[in-house]
Structures are given as C-alpha cells and as structure tokens.
Design a protein that fits this description.
- With 349 residues, the protein is α/β, with parallel strands linked by helices.
- It folds into 3 domains: 65 residues, Nucleic acid-binding proteins (OB fold (Dihydrolipoamide Acetyltransferase, E2P)); 160 residues, Rossmann fold, CATH 3.40.50.300; 62 residues, Ribonucleotide Reductase Protein R1, domain 1.
- Helices cover 23% and strands 23% of the residues.
- It is built from 9 helices and 13 strands.
- It has a 6-stranded mixed beta sheet.
- Strand 1 and strand 2 form a beta hairpin.
- The termini are far apart.
Length: 349
C-alpha cells in the first residue's frame, strides 16, 4: 500500500496554482524595444563654431542681445552623423554658457551646402570640411611657395560641385608678378580676384565681399591664409608660420576649422578658417561636374561628338583641335584632361 494518498495530491492542486507563482518583474526585459526617440521640442538652433576633442563650441541666440557661446557634446543617436563647423545644430541641456556647463546636440538641420574632399582621387570616402558656406576664398601666394594651378583647379571643382561661389586672393604680389599664373584662369569670367602684398592687404575690399556671407578660406600651407584672417578679424589670434627654405613648403599652422565673425561698418559675415592642405582629392565628386569648373572649355567642348571623353586621344574632340589651332591655352586644357583621365581610370577599377 502506497503511503501517498491520491486525495492529498488533489488537495495540493487546490492549494497551489501556476497563477499563484510570483514572477519577479524585470522592466528592461519586459519593456518592448522601440526606435522612437524624444522629440526634444525644447531644442534651440545654434551655429557650430568649431570642434575640439569631442566638444563642440556652438553659438546660441545668434544676433540677439543674449547671444552666447555654449560648449556641447553630441547625443548618442548622432554618433555616426558628422557634425562640422557651420552646421545648424539643435541643442538641449544647460545653454547658459557658464563655465562647467554642457549642452547636448540632438539634431542637425538640413544643410544648404557641404564642402568635402577625399584623401585622393581613388578614395570615395569623403571628409566633410564645412557646412552651409556659400562662398569659398582661395588663398594663393604669387611666390614662396610657388602657386599650384592644378591644386586651385581642384578647389574650384569642389566648390562648384558643392554649389559654392569661388573667390580668389593672390598674396605676396610684392615678391612676384602673378600675371602668368592668373592667365591659367582667364576663362573664368565670374571669378573675382583680389591682389595682396605682404605689407598692404586689401582688407576693406575683401571684407566688403564677406558681408552677409559665410565664406570658407582654403589654401596651400604657407600662402598667408592665417595672416589674412588675422587682418580681417583682429581678435582671431590664428597662428602664423613660415615657408621652409629647403623644401619650399609651408608649415601647418591652423590645426582646426573655426568660424570667426567678420565685422565692419557695412555689416557682418562669417570667416571659416581651415587648416592648410597640400593635396585635395576629388574621389567624391561626380565626374560630370569637372567640366563646370572650366566654363570657357565647356563652351568649346559642347561642339564635340556625342559621348566624347575630351581626352588627348579622343577622336574629333574640339578641345584637341582648338589646341592644335592655337585657340586655347595648352596648360589649361592639360589640367582638365589630367583630371578627366584620373576619373576615367577610377571607373575602370
């Protein structure tokens, strides 16, 4: 005879039920996953002035009596979003600007322009330089270091690809006559050029073109870009350097991109100073936009046969025929064809 009574089993079933088992709540495990994020309806729009080791300097209440600079970090959901100088950022948190306070960037407004470059022409990974600029001022030295027409061509292509109006200033004109260099760009009727000596930069003339605009300054190392920025914005304090007598190369002085406000009796504008570079890759640029940087050549190329590559071996190419006839400068057409050839090889790869 079994010592266990079936009746006892029935009594246990009546006493204990599965619904009586207490389950310890686990909010994290039981909470449904969602991609929804806070709306941040209290966010204010601020201009990104610069970035330093993961901290962003932003301008809150721009143009208002309580305008102030605030230090901010980026929200976690923006960790893969590039935030660059010139961006219009949505910011929350402590926006008092007091020492030790920190805001948080939670969004970026739609950009009107984006200036980019790549490491080289075969690298399609873009490096964003500045956002929302509407002008580019190319700073080129007439000598020391020698001007590089093909580098300037690349700047022009990047500007036009981004929808940015290019300007140019030739520095150190007291050291050499820039006429031969400027001949390379004679076909660019809309390119405004300023001439500047080391002792007498045309600050007022250049400044007039900056009012009401956001202008990014670019140039080869050692051309006097930082010196010009300091003349336009006296409290900028941008470091200046010299050109190595042996290599003929300038030393990098500006290590970061920074927005500086230009002020004059005519109004205000923004000067965006960038580090000097010795190369400017165009791996991100649509090859069809290259010809736009050569409007004088594009006019001739419009008469080429359909599908013409405009390369030196292209049959019946009007550009090559114009060179043979002496109607176009060889150096300028050669600059265009070198760039087109680079992109043609990239496509084959």
């Amino acid at each position: 005879m079994s010592w266990w009574n079936d009746a006892d089993d029935d009594d246990l079933d009546d006493e204990f039920d599965e619904s009586d088992v207490r389950v310890r709540p686990n909010p994290k495990a039981n909470r449904p996953r969602t991609k929804r994020r806070p709306s941040h309806s209290d966010a204010v729009t601020a201009r990104v002035l610069g970035v330093d080791r993961g901290r962003y300097s932003v301008l809150v209440a721009e143009g208002e009596p309580d305008e102030r600079e605030v230090t901010a970090t980026r929200a976690r959901e923006l960790r893969k979003t590039p935030i660059v100088t010139g961006d219009a950022a949505r910011v929350v948190g402590d926006l008092s600007g007091d020492e030790g306070t920190l805001g948080r960037i939670v969004g970026i407004e739609e950009r009107t322009s984006l200036l980019r470059r790549s490491a080289d022409d075969t690298d399609q990974v873009e490096r964003v330089i500045v956002a929302n600029a509407d002008q580019m001022l190319l700073v080129v030295a007439a000598a020391d270091p020698e001007p590089r027409p093909r580098l300037v061509d690349r700047y022009l292509i990047a500007a036009l690809d981004a929808g940015i109006r290019p300007l140019m200033v030739i520095t150190k004109t007291d050291l050499a006559d820039p006429a031969g260099f400027l001949e390379h760009f004679s076909g660019l009727a809309d390119l405004r050029v300023f001439r500047s000596s080391q002792s007498d930069p045309p600050v007022a003339e250049i400044g007039e073109s900056l009012v009401g605009h956001s202008t990014v300054f670019v140039g080869h190392s050692g051309v006097g870009k930082s010196t010009l920025v300091n003349a336009l914005v006296p409290d900028a304090g941008r470091a200046t350097g010299h050109v190595n007598a042996v290599t003929g190369r300038g030393r990098h002085t500006s290590s970061s991109t920074e927005s500086l406000r230009y002020r004059s009796g005519e109004g205000t504008g923004w000067v965006i100073d960038t580090p000097g570079v010795r190369s400017f890759g165009l791996g991100h640029v649509d090859p069809e936009n290259i010809l736009r940087a050569y409007p004088d050549l594009a006019e001739v190329a419009a008469e080429c046969p359909r599908g013409c590559s405009h390369l030196p071996d292209a049959p019946d190419c009007r550009l090559n025929e114009a060179i043979d006839a002496g109607d176009l400068p060889v150096a300028r057409v050669d600059s265009l064809q070198r760039l087109l050839l680079t992109f043609d090889r990239r496509t084959e790869w």
